[in-house]
Amino acid sequence: MNNKLLVAIVAIIAVIVVVGGLGYHYNLFGTQPKYNTITFASSATPSSIDPAVAFDTNSVFFDDQIYQTLVGYNTTTFNGQTVGSIAPAPGLATHWTIASNGSVTFYLRQNVTFSNGDPMNASAVAFSLNRVITMDQGPAFHVAQFLNSSGIHVLGPYTVMLVPSAPYPWFLNLFQLWVTGIVDPSYINAHGGVVKDTVNTYMSTHALGTGPYELQSYGSQQITMVVNPHYWGPRPNITQIVYSVVNQASTQQTLLQKGSVNVALNIPLDQMGNLKNYTNVKVKSGPTSSEYYIGLDENVTPFNNLSVRKAVEYAVNASVITAHSTFGYGTTIYSGMAPTIEDYKPYFNMYKQNLTLAKQYLAQNKTYAHGFNTAFYYTANDPIGSDIATILQQQLAAVGINITLNPVASSTFNDQVGLGTYPMFYEGWVNLLATPDDGLRPLFNSANLGIYGNYNYFNNSTVSHDLVNAGKEYNTTQRDANYTQAQLILAQQAVEVPLFNLQNVIPMTTNVHGLLVYPTFDIFVAQATLS
Length: 531
Known about the structure:
The protein is an alpha+beta fold and about 525 residues long. It has three domains: about 35 residues; about 180 residues, D-Maltodextrin-Binding Protein, domain 2; about 210 residues, Dipeptide-binding Protein, domain 3 (Roll). Helix content is about 30%, strand content about 25%. The chain contains 16 helices and 21 strands.
C-alpha cells in the first residue's frame, strides 16, 4: 500500500470517529444511515423539554423518550386490548422497599449510562431531585409538597432512600412522574447549572438522559430524536422519531390518511368516526383518571343557594350529555372523581333527571320559582364543550333556567375560570397520579378556593378536614371512611354536576404496532414497532 493511500484511509477513519462522537453515524461515503422512522403530528412546539419545567403534553412527550424515572408504568387490559396502567413497575430502580413511615429505599440498575456515556448512579438521582426542588418550577409542586432536600439520602453508589416530609400513602407514585426524570449532573452543570427559582433556558431546547432516544435536532417546526447508542435496554425497532408541528387538525387528518404522518395528536373526538373509515388508519383508546364536570360557582348568585344547585342536578341528564358529546369515548360518572380511582363512590346517582323535583327545588325560593337567567362558559372550538352547551341549554330551559352560551378562547378561559366570574362552566381535571387525594383535594378543599383548583368555591370544613386527613392516612380503613364521607357531602351539597370520564384516544396508521395508550397520556415510543 502506498503512503498516499494510507494517509487517505486514515483521514477517512478520523472523520468517522470525530463525527460519530457527536452522535451521528456515517458510512465511508459520508451518507446518513437509514432510519426506521415514525412521524408524529402535533399542534404546537413544546414549551420546554426540561423535565423539571415541562408542564404540557407536547413537552412531556420528549421527556418520555429521553429521560427515565425511578419507577415505570405497568400494563393492563381494556376492551380486550393491552393498554398502559398506573401500577408501578421497575424503571431505573429494579426494586424498592417501603418502611412503615412511608420512606422508600430504591435499588438502582447498575451499568446504566447517560447518552454521552456518563454513569447514572445514586448521586445523579439525588442531584436530579434536588434540582427539581431548588428550581421550583410548575411541575415541582407534585414532588415538593412531600419531599425536601433533607429527605434525600444516598446510601451507596446504587442505593437511595427518600423520606417524605409529610405522610403520604402514594409517595412511591411520585417517582413515576416525568418531573422526577433523572438528568446528568455533569451536563447540567456545564450548561447553566441549577439556580434557585429559575428556569435553565439551555435545557428548554437541549436534553440528555438515560432513555432509549437522544435529541438529534430541535427546530420550531420539527424536532427529531434518534436511538441512544448507550441505551441500557433492548434496542428499539423504531430508530428515529420525527415530531412535526402541524397547527390545523384538518391537516393532521389529511396527512394521517395519506400516511405522511404515523400518529396525529390533536384530531378532535368528533372526527374519529371519519378516521375509522380509512383502511390505513386505526384508533386506539384507553381509560384515564379524568373527570369532566359542569361547575356551579358558589361565589356568585344564584349558585350560592343549595336549592338552586339541586334544581340543576335534577334538571340535567348527564347520561344523555355524555352519549352525545363524547362521541363514544366517555363514561358517565357520579362522583367528583373518576371511577378508575380507589374509593370512588357514585353518590351523585341520587340525582336522576326529574323535572318535577327540579321545579320544586326552584320554588323553595320565591326569587327563582319561575326560573332565572344565567351564563354558561366553555372553551371555544372544542366540539365536546359545544355539544355540552347546546344540550345543557335545552335541558335547563325545560325548568325555566335560561342560559346564555359563552364560548371563550382557551387562554382567556384558563385565566378566568378560577377567578369566580363564571357562574356556570364546563371544566375537566386530569388526575395524573390516579389517587383519591389528587382527584378530590385540589378541587374541593377550602384551602384551594379559586385559582388553586377549587373553581366551584365550595367551602365546607368537614369535607376539607376529611380530604386533608385522608391524604395523610396509611390505614386504609380510616382513609376509606374519610373519602366516603367527603363524597357523600359533595353530593348532598350538589357541589357540581359530574359528567364523564374521558378516554385517551390516539389515531395512528395501521403499520404502527404496540404503541400503548396510557391513562396519564404518556407515550413511550420504544415499546412500539413499525412494519
